[in-house]
Predict the structure.
Amino acid sequence: MPDTFGFGRHCSPRVFGHTGGSACVVLGPGHGVTIAARFHRNAPLVDRIRRDHALCTAVYTDLGFAVPEGEGRDHSAPVLGVI
């Protein structure tokens, strides 16, 4: 699925993958980033969106592609408004 809101503010529009349930897979061809995570259990949608955004932000920050509070793309998330 192309990035509509689930992969965080620092991923490029070319990022694709799948988030949901207890897993998150993100492929970012622009930076050559691949993220695959399996979480202990499922969470409600709002918590999953926040968790997945935090994960992507942490990875992009640790790799030096972004700073946590730096510029990013706003996304309209269905249950959170603009994030």
Summary: Residues 1-69 form one domain. The chain has one helix and five strands. The chain has one domain: 1-69.
